[in-house]
């Protein structure tokens, strides 16, 4: 099950003396054990499995997929995609 690493939103940032709104897209992450199919709820949980002397899990067994979701509002209403 993916977890949200960053929510969609805007933040104000000063760039070259001008205050601008900077868009932050929604970021969802899925961390999965490639051999067993187990999904982890966080990076820390996957690291615990790798570090555990009880399991034979290595870092190569872990897959981290990142899905960046850009909402339509970022492009405005006059964009032809």
Describe, in plain words, how this protein is organized in 3D.
With 81 residues, the chain is mainly beta. It has one domain (3-70). It is 11% helix and 44% strand. It has one helix and six strands, in the order βββββαβ. The protein has one helix spanning 43-51; strands at 3-6, 9-15, 18-24, 26-33, 39-40, 62-69. Strands 1, 4, 5 and 6 form a four-stranded antiparallel sheet that branches. A hairpin with a 2-residue loop joins strand 2 and strand 3. The longest helix has 9 residues, at 43-51. The chain is elongated and about 55 Å long. The two termini are 30 Å apart.
Shape: elongated
The total tally of domains equals: 1
Give the biggest sheet.
4 strands, antiparallel
In N-to-C order, the SSE pattern is EEEEEHE
Helix content: 10-25%
Strand-residue proportion: 35-45%
Structural class: mainly beta
**Rounded to an integer, what's the Rg over CA atoms?**
18 Å
Number of helices: 1
Mean pLDDT: 89
Intertermini distance: 30 Å
What's the count of strands?
A: 6
Low-confidence stretches: none
């Amino acid at each position: 099950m993916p977890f949200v690493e960053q929510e969609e939103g805007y933040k104000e940032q000063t760039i070259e003396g001008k205050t601008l709104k900077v868009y932050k897209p929604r970021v969802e992450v899925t961390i999965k054990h490639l051999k067993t199919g187990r999904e982890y709820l966080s990076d820390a949980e996957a690291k615990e499995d790798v570090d555990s002397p009880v399991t034979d899990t290595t870092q190569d067994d872990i897959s981290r997929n990142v899905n960046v979701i850009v909402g339509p509002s970022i492009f405005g209403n006059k964009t032809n995609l």
